Amino acid sequence: MARGMLFDRAPWTLEEAREQHRNVTAQIEEHNRRYFQEDAPTISDAEYDELRRFVERLEGMYPELRSKLTEAVGSAPSSKFAKVRHAVPMLSLGNVFSTEEAAEFVARVRRFLDFPADRELAITAEPKIDGLSLSLRYENRKLITAATRGDGAEGEDVTANIRAVMATTGIPEVLPPDAPEIAEIRGEIYLSHADFAAINARQTEIGGKIFANPRNAAAGSLRQIDPKVTASRPLRFFAYAWGEMRDSPRKEAVPATTQAGMVQAFARWGFPVNPLMARCADAEALIAHYRLIERERPVIGYDIDGVVYKVDDLALQARLGFVARAPRWAVAHKFPAEKAITRLNAIDIQVGRTGALTPVAKLEPITVGGVVVSNATLHNPDEIARLDARVGDFVVIQRAGDVIPQVVEVVLDRRPEGTTAFEFPTLCPCHLKTAVIREETSAGIEGAVRRCSGEFACPHQRVEHLKHFASRRAFDIEGLGDKQIAFFYDCPVEDLRIREPADIFTLERRNAASFQKIENFEGFGKQSVTNLFAAINARREISLERFIFALGIRHVGETTAKDLAKAFKSWGNFFSTAFAAASEIPGPSYREIGELKNVGIKAVGYLFSQLSKIADLNARGASLEDIFSHLSRMSLKEPARKSIRERYETATAFVEVLRNAYKQRPGGSYRELVSALSSRVDVEGEMKELAVPDSICSFFLQDENVRIVQELAREVNIEDKSGLSYPELSGSKVFGKTVVFTGSLEKMTRDEAKARAESLGAKVAGSVSKKTDFVVAGPGAGSKLDKATELGVKVLTEDEWLALIG
Q1: Cross-strand partners of 314
Q2: Each residue of 517-568: pLDDT tens digit?
Q3: Is 128 part of the annotated catalytic residue set?
Q4: 68, 80, 83, 128: the active-site residue
Q5: What is the CATH number of the domain that holds 342?
């Protein structure tokens, strides 16, 4: 299977996309924990980057799925080390995976800067070291602190450990006089292949932990509590970036004007720098250097997983700025995926929190690029059928791609005799009682996802709901992880079982009244139980957004939960609205019209307001065009009219559906939910998806869910405030404002203007309406300026805009 094949099967339904998004983001969070906090990753950096790439591409195709995950960098620092706040955040890089994508990166930079084809754009290319990011802070030119990247804002203080390996890393204790007084030098800690082999040989001799690869060994060696252990490991370092550079608190002191010049300065100051770095004049030169590094990869003596490209001119870097978690002026060009062949021993079916059934290939363990793979995804029943994957087959496993690792091919000429086609279960494999259903989309098209219909009757769904509830992004109850949830769900003592969220908060009382105590069970002790109860009680105060997210309502992720919390302010407001809306779900005719391309909720509302006129015209024999001629072109625009023409052959057919839609229109509480989710539902142009409000209504339509939620609400104190303030932006004069740019801009490109406005918390719109706050008009401004004048919207020149935003 080629990379991107899942996308080639598009369009997915939104529900199928949500299921993929949910599964992969859960994998990413687990790998973040293993990589950044435990120094024991089970996948390579390349694999991890491909997982993130899948989520980013999916969110690009389905904006409703956008989450904070794709903006996150690293993971929270470990509690084993003191925390260090980075003066300048340590961000991550975007990725490209082909020469075409690398060329597009260069073209995208040129477009942003508005550079003509004949203007040189120098870009540096250097190996991407597969190690651990490190920031070194010097004050008065002396090393003060060394910190890991952590979550990008805060890292772990590993100063003592770095001082223990100054000799092998080549990191200087003191900088020369030409360096700034305050300097943050950043780079990568790594191990050579030879040193990695020697460390593992020594570990084998003493019966110690054997490291899977040099990156794991480097990370584990640096993040030791005892610096003496770190001192025994020959860590190395390459410098390639910087943070704060000042000669005084107010005087910036960057010693060069280019990326290449900065690296040369690092070398002058005594830092090791990579000799394979080159300055390239165009995309062709970049690709040529990528090929050179790829050829040298087997013999350079340390692990690399790609080549990093950076715009050389620092002034251009500043103009390009950042997007989400990465700079616009840099990207990592990753090396291709690796494949291997192994035997498919079994196909297991996993039941997710929402009842989705996911087939997992159980493999004969095999090493692919240094990582042992024993499980791989088969995505869904349709994929199994497409591959004709059978137990006993030899299959091709790929460690990169859309979801990793994955089965991409069956080796048919090695198929053993007697294999049979896999039959997907018709009853939930968890308890063999409730049916497995194949869901349909709102358009009546069968989806790929199979789901257990049992909901809370399904033990596995209940367990997964509880795991979600206690997880870090929800109630974040320390000490109540997956293993503990599984234990308490089936606890031998019935009085100590946790079967629903409220049971968590009554556990301490029930334990006190029980003859058999939790601390008497294997794996628990008096102190651990005390700590668990303390962690539970610490979560009795919870923000509204976390509470809503923790309920596990389908389609309600963190971002949606924040939108709901921001709109409703209190649990009482949200609950009463959602409960009332449950009986107000719109009917199929309403959806039929609203889901037509370019129609949407606003246009449907306008049509309802004109229903008497439309019906009267139809009764007098008017055609669709005659009816349209009596309707406002502002309220029912031409793209919407075109969609109606294409859908309905006659005026009578359209009017009949419109009448039914009016009878089936949603009630006020449902519309209030839609309004709260306006960023998910396009009220201006196309009613793309009502899955979120529908799902909320479906949840509160079930008496059991209402009972469970009410029991929980009695045990906790839900804050009225949503916690959605943005202190870093609230001082901006354009925060929360809607801005439209029209005409040509002379001091920045349109892309730069948009990026700057959005970074200050403004929304940049493409058209002028009553909701527009500012129109920035340059030479050549046309209809948008006229519209702004007509509506009384404030018009600014480019200079006035720049003065406003500072």
Answers
A1: none
A2: 999 998 898 999 999 999 999 999 999 999 999 999 988 888 788 888 888 8
A3: yes
A4: 128
A5: 2.40.50.140
Cα 229 to Cα 161: distance, rounded to the nearest angstrom:
9
- What is the domain count for the chain? 4
Amino acid at 565: A
Tens digit of each residue's pLDDT (9 = 90 or more) over 315-349: 999 999 988 678 999 999 998 777 788 899 999 98
| Helices then strands, each counted (H, E), the chain | 32, 27
Instruction: List the one residue out of 393, 399, 392 whose CA is nearest residue 377.
Output: 399
> For residue range 135-185, what is the model confidence (pLDDT) as tens digits?
999 999 999 999 999 888 889 999 999 999 999 999 999 999 999 999 999
- Give the domain CATH number at 777: 3.40.50.10190
Three-state DSSP at 121 gives coil
CATH of the domain at 502: 1.10.150.20
Q: How far apart are CA 136 and CA 122, in angstroms?
A: 28
Q: 44-78 pLDDT, tens per residue?
A: 555 676 677 778 777 766 666 766 555 554 444 44
Q: Coil, helix or strand for 173?
A: coil
Contacts of 373 (CB under 8 A, 6+ apart): 340, 342, 363, 365, 366, 367, 397, 399, 405
- Give the per-residue pLDDT at 374: 85
In this structure, the answer to whether residues 359 and 399 fall within a common structural domain is yes
Determine the Cα–Cα distance for residues 805 and 759; give it in Å rounded to an integer: 11
Paired strand residues for 137: 145, 184
135 forms beta bridges with 147, 186
DSSP codes, 425-449: -SB-TTTS-SBEEEEE-TTSPEEEE
Predicted TM-score (pTM) of the model is 0.51
| SS3 of residue 615 by DSSP | helix
- Structural domain boundaries, residue 117: 83-334
What's the confidence (pLDDT) of residue 4?
38
Write a three-state SS string for 550-602: HCCCCCCCHHHHHHHHHHHCCHHHHHHHHHHHCCCCCCHHHHHHHCCCCCHHH
Which helix or strand (DSSP H or E) is residue 406 part of? strand 406-410
- By the 8 A CB rule, do 592 and 656 touch? no
Q: Which two tokens stand for residue 662?
A: 């009016």
SS3 13: coil
Task: Please measure the distance between the N-terminal and C-terminal CA atoms of the chain and give it in whole angstroms.
Answer: 51
Distance (Å, whole) CA 531 – CA 541? 17
Do 342 and 327 have their domain in common?
Answer: no
Alpha-carbon distance 178 to 255, whole Å? 8
